[in-house]
Amino acid sequence: MQQAADEIDLAVGNAAEAGRAGWFVGPFLPDGTGIRRTDRVELKWGVHRAGERREEVSDCAGFGSAAVLVTGSFVMEFPTKSRHVLLSRTGDYVIYGPGVSHSWHALTGSTVLTVRWPADG
Question: Mean pLDDT throughout 8-16?
Answer without folding.
Answer: 87
